[in-house]
Structure formats: C-alpha cells, structure tokens
Amino acid sequence: MALLRSVATVGGYTMVSRILGFVREMLVAAYLGASPVSDAFFVALRLPNMFRSLFAEGAFSAAFVPLFAGKIAEDGREAARRFAEDALAVLLLALLLFLLAGEVAAPFILDLIAPGFRAEPAKFTLAVELTRIMFPYLVFISLTALQGGVLNSLERFAATAVTPVLLNLFLIAVLLAARPLTGQALAWAVAAAGLSQFLWLMFSCWQTGLPLALPLPRLTPEVRKLLRIMLPGVFGAGVMQINLVVSTAMASLLPTGAVSYLNYADRLNQLPLAVLGIAVGTAILPPLSRQVRLGDAAAANTTQNRGLELALLLTVPAAIGLAIAAEPILAVLFQHGKFTAADTAATAPALGAYAAGLPAFVIVKVMAPGYFARQDTRTPVKIAALTMIVNVMLTLLLGRLLAQTGIAMALSIAGWANALLLIAGLRRRDHFALDARLKRVLPRILLAALGMGALLVALESVLAGALAGRLPAKLAALAGLIGGGLGAFAVLALLLGIADLGELRQRLRRRAA
Q: pLDDT tens digit string along 43-82?
C-alpha cells in the first residue's frame, strides 16, 4: 500500500477520534472543570493511557509486526496465524496475573503517580476506586495491540485506527446521559470501551481470514524471540512513560487543578501528534521492515525521509500556531460551565510549552521504526533512559519555578533530546541520512511556519473583540484565526517551493520495495 494512502487511512480515523476526544474533554471541562473529581479521573486514566502507548503504539507492536510480517512472507499465513495465537495465549496469562496484582496494589500505585493526593483523603480514595474500575481496560487494550499488529502487518490499517473512536463514544455517551455525573460512571465507560475494542478487532481479524483462537500458553521458539525483542522495548517505552508519570506526580503536589490543566493542554497538543506522528510511524513500519529484510537500504532511507517530510510539513506550523493562539483556542473550546477564565489563563502557558516539543515527539515516532524494523529495541532503550534522567531533573527544577508550565517545558526539552539522539544513532550506523529533497525543504518549512506565526499575531489582535464576545462570535473568530493561519502557510509553502503537490503525491504513492 502506498505510504500516503496508509498515512491518510490511519491519520483520518485518528483525526475522527481526536475530534471526538475534544468533544469529550469539552464536556468534562464544562461539567467537572478543574476540580478534585477531574484530577482523580485524569490520574486514574493515566494507567490506561500508559498501556495504550506502551503496547498499542509502542514496544509490543514494534516487536510483533516485523516478526509476523516476516512469518507471512517466509512461511505463509497459516504459520503466521499459529505464531499470533501462541503470542496471544502467553500475553493473556501475563496480563491476568498483572490485573490481579494491580487491583490489590492500586493504593500503592497511586502513591507513586500522584503522591500529593494523600494530603486530600477524599480525592485519594476516589482515585483508587476509579483506578480499580479501569484496570481491566489494560488487559483489553494490550490484547487489542496484538490483534492490531496482525491487521497492520496485512496493511489493513482502518480497523485498528478506528478502535480509539469507541473509547471516546462511550465516554461522551456517559457525559451526556449520566445524571448525576460521577467519576465512577466515567470509569465504567472506559472499562466497557476496552471490551468493545477487543471484540471489534476480533471480528476484524475474522473478516481478513485470520481468526485467532486461544491455545494453551506455551513458550515456543517464536514467542521466546518475540519476548527477547519486546522486553527491551517495553522497558524503553516504559522509561518514556515514566516521564509522564513524573509530570503527573509533580502536578499532584501543586494546588488542585494542576493535573487537569496539564491534561487539557496535552489533549490539544496530542491532535497533530496523533494524526501525523503516530499515523506516519504506524504506516512506515511494515514497508520499512520489508525493505530492511530485502537489504534495500536506499528504499528504506527514502521511506523514512518521506515520512519525516510529511510529518514535519504540518507539525512545525501546528506547533507555532498552538503556541501563539493557545489562549483563544482554550477559551473557545473549554471555557464553559465550570471551566473559568482563570483556568484558561493557567492552562495556556502549559499548552505553549507542550507545543514547543511537538515536532520532537513526531520525529521520535517517525525515526523509531528505523530501529524496530531492524529488530533493535535496545538502542532506543538507552536513549529513552538518558532522556528520562533529563526530564526528571528538569521537572523537579522547572516544576517548582513555573508550576504546570515548567512541567510541560521539561517534557518538551526531554523530547528534543530523545529525537536528536535517535537521529544521531541511525546516522552513525549509516541507516539514515537526509536526502537532497529533505535538506532543501526543511528550512523552507520553518520559514513558512514563522511567516504564518507573524500573521497569526496580527490576526489575533484584529479579532480580539470577537474572541472576547459571545460563543457564536468566538467560534467564528477562532475559525477565521485558524483558517487564516492555514491559508497563509499553504500560500507560503507554494511560494517557497516546499513541494509541488502533484510531485509529492506521486513520490509518496511509489510502492515500497
């Protein structure tokens, strides 16, 4: 499948999910604001989000997809199916044991990820209860990662990409229907969504002709190889998640609302990251794995160059746009009901700090497959461990000085360290080099984005009255602000010759290998 089509498939469904995620967060902000209940819910939701990143978007898929794709190429679909079933059985057993331990140890887990909650017993007790209700979601999302790996290996990206939509639909339904709205109702919606995602991909695998049965768990040679490749990656992805845990822990020590401020800011920052970064990273792994297996180094380098170009083409202007227009975006989207103007003012600087790291997070998503395709999960672990140390030190320092803004700033700086070290590692091994096209395009992307930023500053001043008016006027002004920025970047991109759109489309449609 052509890279552009694959990215469009994953990115399109991810866009739907993220838009629904915005609706969800707008409803949470309106009904709960930045309150003890919202803080408790967001902390409890940290564990499901962590495991989604760890498995669905991380180490398991990165290890499983190249092995499964190679098994199909060398031994056929039936042998690949048996490998997937053996992996499923072992994974399920491990997850059930982990689930039991997690339900018992929930208070101790909360002490680690939100130590400040102990000072407020009611908030701590609620967070423990919500964590226990949501813990089964971890089992379902991890099994879903395996099913998604099967489908992605066959380049059937749509079914996997649509699964996050289900979580947002369940939560939106509860937010609109449950009265009184409680944290418990939201937590049960998360657990039910996990089950629905698992059943959806089970049906999708059956539709592709690769239904997965559940044999008795056994450590076959293939499963042992999977674990050997995966475990360093799990540790590496776990180190990256520690960065988020450290951020949450530090925020829990700040006054009530800091955890929620970071969550609302991160929600906006995650839109371009998910739509492009995760989409490109997911789409390039199967063709990159095939190219590496065939020894076609030139094609593999071209695949990563085009993936990086496509990702940065929109995330660089998105980062500048989010940083400049943070306050009006937050005011229009979230400042309703219990989310006040003071909450907007507290969240906007954190969004700007997160946005500064957005291109770096995208680069990580695009460059990591260069290691995974070569079954090298150890190098990203070492890099992630180093950046974790950077993040912890900066979080402790900047969190005390700048509260939630400092916490977001620390994570962005660590993200840039991670991205640059990943690129350096691939270059040192002669696995990646900027091609002539990317060298020409990158500075022009930055120049176009800066030009767009200058226009946004002017537009925000012109539209200040409307942005402070009633909701219809605010929506129209925000649409004008975003539309003006997008239009300016598009015009500048064409004037600067960043890419001929027809040529870019033709290049990205070229089939790998």
A: 888 777 776 666 545 567 667 777 887 778 777 788 888 8
Write the DSSP string, 397-462. HHHHHHHHHHHHHHHHHHHHHHHHHHHHHHHHTTS----HHHHHHHHHHHHHHHHHHHHHHHHHHH
Given a contact cutoff of 8 angstroms between Cβ atoms, the answer to whether 409 and 352 are in contact is no
Rg (CA), the chain: 22
Residues in the chain: 513
Give the separation between CA 254 and CA 389, rounded to whole angstroms. Answer: 21
Query: Residue 293: pLDDT band by 50, 70, 90 thresholds?
Result: confident
Query: Hey, what amino acid is at 375?
Result: Q
Q: Give 494's pLDDT tier (boundaries 50, 70, 90).
A: confident
- Residue 439 within any structural domain of the chain: yes
Distance CA 497, CA 175 (A): 47
Q: Considering the domain boundaries, does residue 392 fall inside one?
A: yes
513 located within any domain? no
What is the band of 235 on the pLDDT scale with cuts at 50, 70, 90? low
H helices of 105-156, where? Answer: 106-113, 121-153
State the Cα–Cα distance between residues 77 and 63, nearest whole angstrom: 18
Q: Token pair for residue 283?
A: 């789409």
Give the C-alpha separation, 239 to 53, whole Å: 12
How far apart are the C-alpha atoms of 116 and 250, rounded to whole Å?
8
Q: Which two three-digit tokens encode residue 446?
A: 């930055």
In angstroms, what CA-CA distances link 365 with 178, 275, 312?
37, 11, 11
Please identify which residue in the block is written with the tokens 């083409």: 313
The model's pTM is 0.71
Are 377 and 62 within 8 A, CB to CB?
yes
- Residues 513 and 511: their CA atoms lie apart, in Å, by 6
Contacts for 51 with CB less than 8 Å, ≥ 6 apart: 137, 138, 141, 142
Q: What is the number of domains present in the chain?
A: 1
Nearest alpha carbon to residue 322 among 374, 359, 280, 275? 359
Owning domain of residue 112: 3-508
Q: Tokens 């040192």, residue?
A: 428
Tens digit of each residue's pLDDT (9 = 90 or more) over 4-28: 565 565 656 667 777 787 788 888 8
